[in-house]
Amino acid sequence: MNPAHPETLPVAATQLPAVPLTIEGYATLHQMMRFRWTAWRSTAESVRREIAVEAAKLLAEMESKTDGQSALFSLIGHKGDLMMVHFRKSFDQLNQAELDLARIRLNDFMEPTTSYLSVIELGLYESSLKTYKALADRGVEPHSEEWNRAIQETVARQKEAMKPRLFPPMPPNRYICFYPMNRLRGEDKNWYTLPMEERQRQMNEHGMVGRRYAGEVKQIITGSIGFDDWEWGVDLFADDPLVFKKLIYEMRFDQVSAVYALFGNFYVGLRCPANRLYDLLEGNLPQHD
DSSP state, 190? Predict the structure, then answer.
């Protein structure tokens, strides 16, 4: 080996890819809406009931789907009145869910405030490092045909093993907390310039906090780079809303959050099953089953 010619160095001595592998599941859409209460109250009670029955029928169908469900939440605060969350196998199906909601009469009383498009995502830091290093040690050139084939096999194997986390049912919990977030990029701190080993270490530390709350909260992470204005979306589901505060507060003390995390607006709501829709629209908080 001639040190004067770096092209003759083994692959293991060259820089490995900086991008970790990811696996994706359900396409996900959050729709936040304001409800036109004045127009609703001005509508005859018999018509209101007909409209609610029609909407509840569609919502019940969406709730009971086996290949990606939907759920309705009553939002707390000024950012909106209602939030629909959809899990689907494709973006086409998400768009169809939007169109289905747009054609019912209840849509005449709803005004979109914002939305969020993403896809359920699991980052494979540990598998990425292990696979990259094993291939490099064998002298396989990054992004070569052999390299890409091995990467595809790793992704397929992980996706099959993680299928329940990639394609989950809609959690049945009483409360939801949704927020978007970025990994900070600035003059002094830039998450994306850290070595993969350091990013893996920080993410492992971050994940340990979440695992301690596993019995109290269901967390679903979605990736939105290239799909929406932030990089990730986070959905938390729980029967006690205080767990949202405790979990997020504790996570903000680990390095990846304290140094690199930037958070967007938070949306907190209560689950409204299809069979309680009319009660909600009449101003009565739906009871949790």
Answer: B
The owner of tokens 């099959």 is 160
CB-CB contact of 109 with 36 (8 Å): yes
Report the C-alpha gap between 156 and 158 in whole angstroms: 6
Give the helix/strand (H/E) hosting 160. helix 145-161
The reported pTM is 0.88
Find the length of the chain.
Answer: 289
Report the distance separating Cα 250 and Cα 100, nearest Å: 40
- Residues 6 or more apart whose CB falls under 8 angstroms from that of 229 comprise 180
213 vs 245: CA distance, rounded Å: 12
Active site residue 179: yes
Handedness of CA 82, 85, 86, 92 (dihedral sign): positive
| Nearest-angstrom CA–CA distance, 56 and 53 | 5
User: Could you read off the pLDDT tens digit of each residue along the chain, which spans 289 residues?
Assistant: 444 444 434 444 357 888 999 999 999 999 999 999 999 999 999 999 999 999 999 999 999 999 999 999 999 999 999 999 999 999 999 999 999 999 999 999 999 999 999 999 999 888 888 999 999 999 999 999 999 999 999 999 999 999 999 999 999 999 999 999 998 777 678 877 878 888 888 777 777 666 777 789 999 999 999 999 999 999 999 999 999 999 988 888 777 777 878 899 999 999 999 999 999 999 998 776 6
**Which letter does DSSP use for residue 70 in this model?**
E
- Picking from 236, 246, 182, the residue whose alpha carbon sits closest to that of residue 209 is 246
Nearest to 25 by CA among 90, 69, 111, 70: 90
| Amino acid at the residue 234 | V
Q: One of 116, 179, 260, 267 is an active-site residue; which one?
A: 179
Residue 164 CB burial class (10 angstroms; 0-12, 13-18, ≥19) = exposed
